[in-house]
Amino acid sequence: MGVVVPLEDRTGEAGLAPLLALAAPGMERVNAFILSRTGSDVAMIPEVANHLISSGGKRLRPMLTLATAALTGYSGDADVRLAAAVEFMHTATLLHDDVVDGSEMRRGKLAARMLWGNEASVLVGDFLLGQAFKMMVEVGSLEALRILAEAAAVIAEGEVMQLSAAKNTTTTEDDYLAVVRAKTAELFAAACEVGPVIAGRPKAEQAAARSYGMNLGVAFQLVDDALDYGGREAKLGKKVGDDFREGKITLPVVLAYRRGTPDERAFWKRTLEDGQVEDGDLEEAIRLMGKHGAIEDTLARARHYGAIARDALGLFQDKPDVKALLDVVGFVTARAH
Amino acid sequence: MGVVVPLEDRTGEAGLAPLLALAAPGMERVNAFILSRTGSDVAMIPEVANHLISSGGKRLRPMLTLATAALTGYSGDADVRLAAAVEFMHTATLLHDDVVDGSEMRRGKLAARMLWGNEASVLVGDFLLGQAFKMMVEVGSLEALRILAEAAAVIAEGEVMQLSAAKNTTTTEDDYLAVVRAKTAELFAAACEVGPVIAGRPKAEQAAARSYGMNLGVAFQLVDDALDYGGREAKLGKKVGDDFREGKITLPVVLAYRRGTPDERAFWKRTLEDGQVEDGDLEEAIRLMGKHGAIEDTLARARHYGAIARDALGLFQDKPDVKALLDVVGFVTARAH
């Protein structure tokens, strides 16, 4: 009856510790900088922004920027601004996502849209995006700007792709991966790529950091998709089954649908395409995923991308800081098995 | 019974002709560039974007960028990219505005949100904003980037300000002007400022162009506010009284409220703060504005800002191209009297 996903796995927690230690001094400055840039005379802006920003996200993306900058020998302070910009881009995306998905919860708290409305969530997201670009301009690296501006366009493109595919149970795994790369992994990739860029390192190192971030991001999203059908609510910060209720076609669904009988496919079409969800349907969805190994195999796919991410760091194998980044892969995939 | 605003005024149309002529060669390239950058493998993106982009907006803002670049002697092709970026920022703002305001019409067509939904409007807006920043990065001027990134943040801040003030009939004229400067005039100001910036002209010329754009933008918005209570539907591209139905506090309301009797103030509170609008209320609102001269005086205020915009161009009085920019002021204010 479904796959139990023990989120308490200690390996996961330990896996993030080296990154936390590496990034700690920089993150203190990133956090102070973030707070200083949500300020506005318009009271609603810091209220909405800080509700989400202070809600205990892991800040994985800005830590990755600091870590890849450190890894490649950067010693200035542009990494702090770029890390803060990355977190602002992420926060803006979350505000807009929750509006688009009609989500009620985010990180275990009411979504901003439930407290201040969709209107404020859209506009404060826009404000944060504007602030993010201001920070990048302050850094003055046109190459970092190019990477992050490209990421902003690609992320939005991925979200629209997902919206278009949302109700289509026949989405292929490849289609779905294209969405994941764009809407989630692109920001991980950009966050990692700008580190060696500001360090002035060669293209090969920039590409390696980008590849690490891209594959880590895909693994991260796939584990998230699996957790939505098997995680525990308190740790997940949202309700189990949110993706199901919102009719999102994620990899566990893609696999269960393709491996399913005609009756089962009718079930997926009724619940996800037609949105006719009845009591017990979530349990049935989880049962079907168990029957077909859809969650285990989603996690196996995540480990595959995690392995690519690790190998991408091969160029840096003689650097002591590389261990922290390798361990992040363990953290991301150990969240779930 | 209300002020008749004859939109067919020939002075207005003639007023834009010199700018149209000055900007024509550049605008052909801007339009081609805009089309090339709404492309995406995700079919919904060009559909939504082109619905609005091809809907016959005047493209005043990108023309202003071309014109201020020409005025200050610029001869490269960065102005085309920046002009396209300005138009994308504007389009993104309109897509998000219509979601925030729940608007049904835009430029005489159904708003994108009525055809593709709020979700697509939010996300395609984000995509266009990302594309706008990519274009700016391609230009490579950090100063132009700084100005436009700042504008993006200020515009969003102004929209939140308006959201916070939306239902407050006691908004002062100063409060309202702060909203107008941020949400409308800032983009006019930035569009004009980047012209002399890429031309490498001194700060004094940049500031003059910015001041022209800022005051022109304020005049533009105030005339728009007046037209909403007195324009004719076909020319306005939206319904007369949209602002009233959406409970927007604009300058005609601020003036009519401040000059009104206690009974009249109760009327404004009922209709705009409490949203209890009945048949005949729009006509009553227009009658009260007529009684207190609120529309004429909104237009008088607009002419005041128009005069400041004209004087800001004093630095350029010996330049032949300046006439086109002076005539824009006439066009903007003659739309309405």
UniProtKB/TrEMBL annotation, chains A, B:
Coiled-coil segments on the chain, per record: none
UniProt KW keywords: Magnesium, Metal-binding, Transferase
Keyword Repeat: no
Entry's family note: Belongs to the FPP/GGPP synthase family.
MF terms in GO: metal ion binding; prenyltransferase activity
PANTHER family: ALL TRANS-POLYPRENYL-DIPHOSPHATE SYNTHASE PDSS1, GERANYLGERANYL PYROPHOSPHATE SYNTHASE
Top-level lineage group: Bacteria
Cofactor: Mg(2+)
Protein name: Polyprenyl synthetase family protein
Family matches, as PROSITE patterns: POLYPRENYL_SYNTHASE_1
SUPFAM superfamilies in the cross-refs: Terpenoid synthases
InterPro entries named in the record: Isoprenoid_synthase_dom_sf, Polyprenyl_synt, Polyprenyl_synt_CS
Family matches, as CDD domains: Trans_IPPS_HT
Organism: Hansschlegelia quercus
